[in-house]
Amino acid sequence: MEVHHHSHLASGETHSARKKWTHYFWEFLMLFLAVTLGFFVENQREHYIEGKREKEYIRSMIEDLKTDTKYFAAEISGRNQNRIMTDSLIYLLSKKDRTEFEQQRMYYFARYCIARVDLPQFHDRTYDQMKSSGNLRLIHGKNIADSISDYYFNAKEIQVNINQTQARILTTIEFEGKVFDGIVFQQILNKDNFTFNQPGDNPKLMTDDKIIINELIIRLHYLISISAFTELYFKKMNTQAMQLISFLQEQYHIK
């Protein structure tokens, strides 16, 4: 009997130990699942928030691109008009004899065509903000990120053009001072709205020296050349901007 009783206790102890082991196992499993689920939920929440921020950035970038296209359209039109005026100015400077009206037009063109040369600019506020804050990583698609980077890389390339344009404007102004009367320029300026009127009398040139006039023509030629190049560049960038707008709207389902 004593042996049988001892055997019964050993069996009970084994059952109790097995029960404790399974209990701990299930506790560990539930804890593991809770932590895993919590991590998954937090990860999904973070993914949702980042996706929302990404779409907000893209909306803002699309608005920047739309502003660029409006700017390009205005600049393409303005530079075309400026090129026509500069062509006319070069023609009038090359003439031996000019009418009074041609003298007036020459002064008007000389002052206006310099004032109309704008330095290129891009509206890259959103892109620069994303770049400086490290939020370009939010863009989930490599093809999307590449398209955006390609556009703004091409936009930055215009800096070389800006530097050349500034230099050519300065040298052209320098030589205009040797050919045109500055007092006439002052008289035709409308200071209230920064426009220019055509002079009403018969303004003369400061010199008829063919060498000096030819050098001014050369400088006007280089100025108009870089302006024509910029116009072509704007047409290319305008096309790229419109394509990028459509692409981003399609990828992010933005109307």
Major β-sheet profile:
2 strands, antiparallel
Number of strands: 2
How are strands sequenced across the largest beta sheet? Answer: 1-2
Radius of gyration: 37 Å
Describe the structure.
Strand 1 and strand 2 form a beta hairpin. Helix 1 runs antiparallel to helix 2. The protein has one domain. It is rod-shaped. By secondary structure, the chain is an all-alpha fold. The protein has seven helices and two strands; from the N terminus they run ααααααββα. It starts with a helix and ends with a helix. It has a two-stranded antiparallel ribbon with strand order 1-2.
Secondary structure layout:
Blueprint: H1 2-94, H2 100-115, H3 125-133, H4 142-156, H5 158-179, H6 182-188, E1 189-190, E2 195-196, H7 210-251
Antiparallel strand pairs: 1-2
Helix pairs in contact: 1-2, 1-3, 1-7, 4-7, 5-7
Quick recap:
The chain is mostly helical.
Give me some keywords for this one.
255 residues; mainly alpha; two-stranded antiparallel sheet; 2 strands
